[in-house]
Amino acid sequence: MPHTSHRKKQGQKKRLQVNSEDGWTTITSSSSGASDAQKSHESGFSRTFLIPHNSNAHPADIPEGYTLDKLNEDYSRYEKVWTNSQCSKELATILQERIAGTQHGQQPVFTDKLDNCVCIGLGSMVDAVSRRAALLQFAALKQILSILDEERTRPALRSSCIAQDPVFNELDMDFLATTHQVTILRDPEKAASHISNSTFLYAPHCEWSFLLPALQGGAMSPSLVVCNDIEPLISGPLSTSLHGLVSDKAREFVHLPAREAVAFPRFEPHDSVFNDLSIYWRASEPSRDDKC
User: Fold this and answer.
1) Which of 119, 87, 282 is nearest to 185 (CA)?
2) Could you tell me the pTM of the whole model?
């Protein structure tokens, strides 16, 4: 076949896929023009996904007779459960005191600009098994966005929210897009392209093989994150059974300068919905007066 003489367009993405013997596929996606190592270290535009060879996630089935009206009714019910919980009140305090820093006149410890919100791995709100957890987690997300929009001067995050999960079905997407103005992306790689150091990443109980690529990028990693506790991937028993790249990427994220973390409050009505989650943010640099 003859070679073509036209140039690649600037910014064209390269995609490398390697199947390893341990059952995992490594997919690296990056923009052309610099080495992968350099981009990963300097700009975060190179993200490596680790997914099972037999990954077959597909849209969840819609139960017979289940409609958007019923989904809205279920959401309203679970939203009230969330709003009335002690967990919701404690989360608001964390956001207002430790992150936004607007209560009691203290200076905010989190000063990064946030331009958008990316939500990954929420799960289907239609599927009978995952519905309760997904709706409660979505109610928590709505509260977080509301507090951040009220407490800080920035473009409204509620109107700049993107969600991606391969299990979303048509009813999930209709609920998110039509009722709550959330932009739906089907491709995880496209969702990852929206993540930068001005992103709020919401990924409760997201599979680590999809979560860690979203966290990586050095200085370009998201500045505010709600996700699984990362420490077990670094030093816990789980770390010994994982692909080596996983622990490396987890360590890179947690050990970034000025990275702060706090455990997500306990949700007593249904403890498993928010268990083992943490809130991570990049704290502002202390002033010279503070150092003295």
Assistant:
1) 119
2) 0.78
